[in-house]
């Protein structure tokens, strides 16, 4: 059977409403029925409207940071303030646009949309999109006794392309990504890094039929897609990666481009804002396998309770993985008890670096301790802020399909689930960062010069 897309015309809704009830009405109005194996694609803006995620700009109180963003990029101050509130990370921008990331979804202006909203109002991304998608999937099963997939779709600009295409913001009931690695191409060569973005591909197909303007088609049924269905819950980590692992972000921010002045206009635009802050998240509340919940303590003197990644891999295998990701050996460091070999570091956005140590936990297990700090290239490394990190290492291990557990070092238990997170910001060093090697060279040169002058005057 050929793949078919059936867009569904629906009445426009402004106030908060029940999406499932609206779906039933829309199916009846369009004389359509859902079938087993269908993929139901729903507009994120429609979901946002149902949740009341529509903001009146006149009611926004503007912070100093919002005013600063507004002035830098010629944005309306209220829009700049909402962008800051809705974002986990701000990369920078150009006049009229700011590139942001929230839950590892990178978008201009945090996905805020003025279209299909009344004057003076804007629509935000939906809250808990994966949970919403899963709830709709379950309600459809209980109502019709059929298995379907759900995709929440938005439209997105692609780098150096004209026009928008669809992207899956969240999904349920389908395997969102197809791992093509080890499969062979037409010439019999094994694929090494290819993943097929199944949810995004279906989202784009449906979005083409749903339209971008006044079509009023917030639902589309994709039939006979051949997509693999599943009953397990899907998480956002299965469809996204950290910006630190994104090939576009890493290439633009790489030291090579900075040194050789490649892509200078884009580089300057993206990192004009908060250039020296490092933003991340760290588990706040966790639960263990015995059901006990625990809040991770943050103490200014004692630091953060440590969570570590534990894997059953050889040191050599892990070294190859981290080396392939761009990590290099640390030459001078204070080694921890039971540490195996040298630590590793990865240069991040100036002046930060990620430092990893591997520790022998016996019984074939290795603990990975990771933190982000000011690079050893700078004098401020000795007295600057630093933070332990977990998710950055987790992203790398998932990429290489390495099984791992998260270990609470103080309580001595494996973490079963992470319930919520701290938002962590390493602030810009209070004084400009100084590279100590050039400074040492200058001091040595001046010392040699005055030494030579002194001895020649004796």
Description:
This protein has helices at 19-29, 44-51, 64-73, 77-86, 129-144, 198-210, 247-253, 255-260, 264-270, 315-324, 391-399, 436-455; strands at residues 4-8, 39-43, 54-56, 89-94, 97-102, 105-108, 121-123, 149-157, 164-172, 177-179, 195-197, 219-223, 278-288, 293-295, 298-299, 303-304, 307-311, 328-329, 344-347, 352-360, 366-374, 386-388, 404-408, 413-426. It is α+β, with helices and mostly antiparallel strands. A hairpin with a 2-residue loop joins strand 5 (97-102) and strand 6. It folds into two domains: 4-238, 60s Ribosomal Protein L30, Chain: A (2-Layer Sandwich); 276-437, no CATH class. Strands 13, 14, 17, 18, 19, 20, 21, 22, 23 and 24 form a ten-stranded antiparallel β-sheet that branches. Strands 1-12-2-8-9 form a five-stranded mixed β-sheet. It has twelve helices and 24 strands. The protein is globular, with a radius of gyration of 26 Å.
Q: Give the low-pLDDT segments.
A: 255-275
CATH-derived topology of the largest domain: 60s Ribosomal Protein L30, Chain: A
Distance between the termini: 97 Å
Content-based structural category: alpha+beta
- Whole-number count of domains: 2
Report the top-level CATH class of the largest domain: Alpha Beta
Mean pLDDT: 82
Total DSSP E strands: 24
Strand content: 25-35%
**CATH homologous superfamily placement of the largest domain:** CofE-like
Shape: globular
Give me the CATH architecture of the largest domain, please.
2-Layer Sandwich
Q: What oligomeric state do these chains adopt? A: single chain
Individual helix count: 12
Largest sheet: 10 strands, antiparallel
Q: What's the Cα radius of gyration?
A: 26 Å
Helical residues, percent? 25-40%
